[in-house]
Amino acid sequence: MGYIKSAALEETGYVVLDSYHQEVDPQEWLDIEYVDWKSSGDTRFAPLASAKGEIECNGFWNHKPPRTDKDGVWIDAQVVKAPNLTRRAQEPGANVGRCRVIELQPTPYGECLYNLHQDDNNRLNPDGTGWVVRGFFNLTDDKDSFFVLRENRTDPQGEVRIALPAGAQLIIDTQRLWHATTHLGTEPRYNLITSWTSGPELDAYIEKHHGQSHTASVAVDQAILDAGYAEQARKDAARAAYYAAKGQAEVRAMSEA
After folding, report:
1. How far apart are CA 191 and CA 206, in angstroms?
2. 248: Cβ–Cβ under 8 A, 6 or more apart, which residues?
3. pTM surpassing 0.85?
4. Measured distance CA(110)–CA(93) in Å, rounded
5. Which pLDDT value is given to residue 253?
6. Phi and psi for 165 in degrees, rounded to 5?
7. Which of 38-42, 188-192, 245-249 shows the lowest mean pLDDT across its residues?
8. 96-104 and 189-197 as β-strands: parallel, antiparallel, unpaired?
9. Which of 163, 53, 141, 63 is nearest to 100 (CA)?
10. Beta pairing partners, 74
11. Read out DSSP for the chain?
12. 47-59: per-residue pLDDT in tens?
């Protein structure tokens, strides 16, 4: 039967939406409660919606009963502090699973490449239903930072680097694309991440905000790119050696973040 997917994401796996006027929002992301939850890099997360409405970030399949990343329960104590962020996550009208703000500490390009991962959005998702993708709304003004997308984790061919000023809005099939962020600021980067179920509601939202499946890639000096490739290879080799020394096969599983 196959999953219901957004045609707008079919070609490249992502769309860039119209920029949001971020300055009109109060800095709600500084008031909500964060938990230590490691994803790709030095991170914390502040959940707005979770499996049972509790302040935690676990995959919905790790709860009882286990289920896919849909029908998230809004956390009253967080929503009251972040009504605008909640409104933005709900605006498409698509089903929301997990919704949270990520806090990312500065991360150079080579570290970003090592952190590239795919998300396990659709575990337990029944065939014939909507495919779960993720929205990314950049909250802080990170003009020198960029999102990295690859079809193949270790192959830079076709790598896309998307700029992250305040108000940047992306929707990404993060189970298809390897992704992570190069954050070159001195302060933490904050970003709202929402799991949405594909379907007519999300399609209409993408159309309303003029979703583009191609964008100009952020220009990076070739010496920095080459150094990043070398750092990724070095860290990958060190990781493989670590597991080999323990007599274990290296497993790079999908992220639950």
Report:
1. 19
2. none
3. yes
4. 37
5. 47
6. -70, 170
7. 38-42
8. antiparallel
9. 53
10. 49
11. ---B--GGGTTTSEEEPPPP-GGGS--GGGTS--EE--SSSSEEEEEEEESSSSS----GGGSSS---S-S-EE-HHHHTT-HHHHHHHHTT-S-EEEEEEEEE--B-HHHHHHH-B-B-TTTTPPTTSBPEEEEEEE-S-EEEEEEEEESSTT--TT-EEEEE-TT-EEEE-TTTSEEEEEB-SSS-EEEEEEEEE-SHHHHHHHHHTT-BS--PPPP--HHHHHHHHHHHHHHHHHHHHHHHHTT-----PPB--
12. 999 999 999 999 9
Do residues 220 and 160 lie in contact, with contact meaning Cβ atoms separated by under 8 Å? no
> Which class would CATH give 7-245?
mainly beta
pLDDT > 70 in the chain, percent:
95
Question: According to the model, what pLDDT value does residue 43 have?
Answer: 87
Report CA torsion sign: 224, 163, 197, 47. Answer: positive
Report the alpha-carbon distance of residue 211 to residue 10 in Å, rounded: 12
CB neighbours of 96 closer than 8 A, spacing ≥ 6? 49, 70, 71, 72, 89, 90, 194, 195, 196
Tokens of 128: 């014939």
pLDDT higher than 50, residue 65 = yes
Domain boundaries, the chain: 7-245
What distances in angstroms separate CA 154 from CA 151, 163, 178, 247, one per listed residue?
9, 21, 10, 24
126: cis peptide before it, omega within 30°?
no
21 to 25, 138, 139, 166, 168: CA distances (angstroms): 8, 11, 10, 8, 9
| Integer Cα distance of 256 and 138 in angstroms | 20
